[in-house]
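Table S2 (continued). Query chain:
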Amino acid sequence: MSKVKAEQAAPNEQPAEQPVIDSKYRMIIVAAQRSKQLQRGARPRVDLDIQRHKPTRIALEEVQQGKVDFSLISKEQ
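Corresponding output:
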């Protein structure tokens, strides 16, 4: 089992090879973590009105557009 960690990219950081979202469950996990970041004050990376859309909807749109960096953390046994 591997964990997923959503990351906020630094503006001058070179994008690394990003893993593929291989299931709808992984997409939901990444979006949920991004939604928490948005609720804590992170700026949206898509052009949606934050007054009309909830953080969860904004996070899902960001993940679908590939604007959320994430990494897989494998569980060592």
